[in-house]
# Entry
Amino acid sequence: MRPDWIAVDWGTTHLRVWAMGPEGIRAEATSDNGMSRLSRAGFEPALLGLIELWLSGPPIPVLACGMVGSRQGWHEAPYRTVPCKPLLAGALAAVPVKDKRITLQIAPGLKQVRPADVMRGEETQIAGALALHPGFDGIFCLPGTHSKWVQISAGEVVSFQTYLTGEMFALLSQQSVLRHGMTSEVWDDDAFDQGVADGMARPERIAAHLFRLRAEGLIADLSPSAARSRLSGLLIGTELAAAKPYWLGTRVILVGSAAISGLYARALSQQGLETETLPAKDCTIAGLALAAGALTKAAE
# Structure
């Protein structure tokens, strides 16, 4: 089984690879060898460990996106400045490799000078989302560890804003004093909805809302499932309050996993906004496929 090319999504915590052919995905593999676990010398062996069985014959093009192109990654792919198209095949960074069975190129991230902001990996998902929705003008929301709100016009990223919402949820629920009251993984929709409403209504009181979760757990029998769900709602609601200029009265497409996108869709529906969701995996592969197609044409 020899792929025509290999797609790679290399983030901070995970490495995902797909063997691609004309019909789409032929095989896939994943590992925990994210950027944060590797030294610069460890990237090529980590990649080869997943794709070794796919390599034969002439060099196979490998196209990668994500934190692999950061300053701490395998090879720094310089940011492109918005407004611009999310991905340009000619702007991919070529990376020297030792193994002659592959060639490697990394998609550069995007930067916004004022207010300062950056993204890596999301630009490829945005390019893929635009390929799946040609002519789209509006807002992409990419929820996750670092949520992105992205304004799209005429096929270009005009502006974007990042929120640390997912990382804050992980830190608060796992490392702060709140962790003692969040030992349940059971979800409580009503508690989540209340958290969203509180975060939207009074975002300036987020610090007080957070400690109230601890207090209610101690003296008012707030259950661990309700506390965890309300924490998520508070953080997402506060994010939505800040991002209101992006989503108010505008078409919004969510790009992400079903679970986290579902929470954002539920929160936005409370504000009267119905959204559409695209799987992050589909958008990543579609974005890299655009670049792979352009590279093939250039080679011909």
About this structure: The two ends are 23 Å apart (CA to CA). The chain is about 40% helix and 25% strand.
